[in-house]
Amino acid sequence: FLMERKTPAKINRKEVMLAKLRKSCSCTPQKLKNFLMDFFPVLRWLPKYRCKEYIWGDVMSGLVIGIILVPQAIAYSLLAGLKPIYSLYTSFFANIIYFLMGTSRHVSVGIFSLISLMVGQVVDRELLLAGFDLNDDAPPALGDGSLQNDNLSNTTAFNFTIAGINAECGKECYAIGIATALTFMAGVYQVLMGIFRLGFVSMYLSESVLDGFATGASLTILTAQVKYLIGIKIPRSQGHGMLVITWINIFRNISQANLCDVITSAICIVVLVTAKELGDRYKHKLKFPLPTELVVIVVATLVSHYGKLNEVYASSVSGAIPTGFIPPKVPEFSLMLRVALDALPLAIVSFVFTVSLSEMFAKKYAYTIRANQEMFAVGFCNIIPSFFHSFATSAALAKTLVKTSTGCQTQISGVISAMVVLLVLLFLAPLFYSLQKCVLACIIIVSLRGALRKFQDVPARYQVNKVDTLVWVVTMSASALVSTEIGLLVGIVFSMLCIIVRTQRPRTALLAQIQDTSFYEDDLEYENLSTIPKVKIFRFEAPLYYANRNYFLKSLYRLTNLDPNLEAARRKKYEKKEKQHLKKGNHRTANGLGIRETTLQLVPKQIDFQALVVDCSSISFLDTTGVNTLKEILKDYKNLNISVLLACCNPSVIDSLKRGGYFGKDFGCMQEMLFYSIHNAVLFAKDQK
Asked: Topology versus the membrane, per the UniProt entry (predicted)?
């Protein structure tokens, strides 16, 4: 039977476009109100806030995250190559802006190790190009930690003008200028992606690519922190192969290790790892996570201050951290041009991590987010703070898990966290003057446990999917051994190549009937299947298009053990010789054989089937080459008196065949060429004479 297709309703595209334009360009009070409430989701949920039900969980989770944020912000400043004060600014502004614009109730947006690393690599490169010494570890200025003293200490002997920067701008000033320009450009890219609905870009970052990228970047982060762990001074490697070069320099200078830093690092790592393991083991019994990082920082700062570790043992310390806010400044346009290309992968990675975490927790807690609005939110979390000496941000999994485990209900918790950071910015920052850098490096390294544990999952990942494991290994290796940006690009390209290869060389099979049923399966995969006499059933498990056309034909000829072109050529050759000998009246051929014997040589075996059924259930689409390929096999097999029947075609494939003239001009033979199940095609083939 032939099912009748519905006639699609004709759509006047011009009228639809005009209607959309009229709707978009109209401005009414209600539309303006809806726009504001969509752009600032806080206006929708804050009036409905259940204070008695939510406030305790939000305050508790906000305080815990704020306590975690302070030591992490100070520590991650090492990754970004900036002063700790800028990390605190970043954490403060990101939480406030996401509170206003974000649609996720649980995501913690702020400073993130991978993003800090990517910012730091660009900052280091530009500092080198500007002629600054990355290893210029000038002793911190003495004073009360005020902004004035800090500004004086930042003025170095570099008196020149670069990209429009004032001649009095020193190393720190130039570094934060690069970071803010990079952050501004990343935010602009994210907002533009939101305006043009380009969120689909995140689809090309598979889970394997993201995991491999995070693990490779974690190895780079770990490598960059080793010099702080053991207190050696080595040049900060830049460019490709940074990981290998850094380890070579570490082993060359290992004899210069600072014993005080080594002992401090060993103690801190033991304490942090033990506390984390105990916290993971007894997390169901604890109401909130232990603030181990804060305790370690407080104790280490006190020991360093009263033990005078910097003066006596030359242990490197954080130095003066100013209080208050530096006046806002517009990012330098000339610097934006220098880092415009670097901002693109930063924008994509930041957005992808934020949206993927938002979707994960929205699904877990049964609510919805708007991915496009998340793009705007994270974009403005970069644009606005860049005027206030902040750098790029993203959602962080570890802090988000802590938020949910401590009772977070809404983004009110983000405001509480911002208030904790503000307290440090206004009053407590100078107290961290004596904090050793090796302690900060220990906090960073211990925070990488989750990403580094991905190595343990490789065997299980390999059992699930070998191709995804290969994508993970390639992305991880490229991110660690080449660079993070190149690693991300390599991962995306390699994963797409894997998809292309899968469609170019898909699985093919000859099917046989499951006994006493109307179903058919792969004869090589299952036992006790019944072959159909005089009928071959061929399955091709991929779209049929120009890239796999040859593989389709080779597989078909190999499995059916018949190449119709060779067979047709063999028959023509036989017929030609037969006619020549009949004209001469000679019933024996030139090689001394009879005509019957010649036939056996030229046509060595009889064709064992009279119908070929092509199972099209896995063919999602056909291009022009695919249609022509099916027309070609239809013609070639017809010359051998073998009928070709198509089964289980989806509507788009049928439409492609119609447009390509596969069924003839008037589709008269369509009922004898197209079937809605394999079994119907087999029954039709059996009834053929």
From this structure: Multi-pass membrane protein
Burial class (CB in 10 A: 0-12, 13-18, 19+), 211: buried
**How far, in Å, CA of 670 to CA of 654, rounded?**
10
What Å distances lie between residue 177 and 79, 328, 334, 379, CA to CA? Answer: 16, 12, 10, 19
In one-letter notation, the amino acid at residue 207 is: E
The SS3 call for residue 631 is helix
* Contact yes or no for 545/625 (Cβ under 8 A): yes
- For residue 615, the cross-strand partners are 539, 647
- CA dist., res. 172 & res. 151, Å (int): 9
Distance from C-alpha of 385 to C-alpha of 182, rounded to nearest angstrom: 12
Quickly tell me which residue has 């600072």 as its tokens.
Answer: 258
Measured CA to CA, the distance from residue 112 to residue 77 in angstroms comes to: 10
Helix, strand or coil for residue 513?
strand
The β-bridge partners of 371 are: none
CB atoms within 10 A of CB 349: 26
* pLDDT beyond 70 at 143: no
Phi-psi label, residue 88: left if phi above 0, alpha if psi -120 to 50, beta otherwise? alpha
In this structure, the number of other CB atoms found within 10 A of the CB of residue 68 comes to: 26
Determine contact, residues 350/392, Cβ cutoff 8 Å.
yes
Does residue 261 contact residue 229 with C-beta atoms inside 8 Å? yes
Q: How far apart are CA 509 and CA 541, in angstroms?
A: 9
Name 682's Cβ contacts closer than 8 Å, sequence gap at least 6.
Answer: 513, 520, 532, 535, 537, 613
Note whether 105 and 367 are within 8 A (CB).
yes
Residues facing 513 on adjacent strands: 520, 530
What is the domain partition of the chain in residue ranges?
Answer: 56-133+171-501, 508-569+606-688
CA distance 325 to 329: 12
Question: What is the dihedral sign for C-alpha 176, 178, 179, 181?
Answer: positive
Q: What is the pLDDT of residues 313-370, one digit of tens each?
A: 888 888 888 888 999 999 999 999 999 999 999 999 999 889 888 888 898 888 998 8
Q: In a 10 Å sphere around its CB, with 0-12 CB exposed, 13-18 middle and 19+ buried, how is residue 333 labelled?
A: exposed
Rounded Cα distance between 167 and 181, Å, is: 18
Question: pLDDT digits over 22-73, tens only?
Answer: 777 777 888 888 889 999 999 999 999 999 889 988 998 898 888 888 888 8
**Number of Cα atoms under 13 Å in the Cβ half of residue 38:** 11
Q: Report whether CATH 3.40.50.12370 matches the domain 508-569+606-688.
A: no
Q: Tell me if 494 sits within 8 A of 482, measured CB to CB.
A: no
Dist CA 41 CA 312 (whole Å): 54
Question: Using one digit for the tens of pLDDT, what is the confidence trace for 529-546?
Answer: 999 999 999 999 999 999
Residue with tokens 């498990």: 541
Checking if the pLDDT of 141 tops 60, the result is no
Question: What average pLDDT does this structure show over 670-675?
Answer: 88
Q: Cβ distance 361 to 106 under 8 Å?
A: yes
* pLDDT value, residue 89: 94
Kindly state the DSSP code that residue 666 receives in the 8-state scheme.
Answer: S
Stated as kind and residue range, the H or E segment containing 264 is helix 259-281
State the DSSP H helix or E strand holding residue 530, giving kind and residue range, or none if neither. Answer: strand 529-530
Rg (CA), the chain: 34
Q: Which residues pair with 613 in a beta bridge?
A: 537, 645
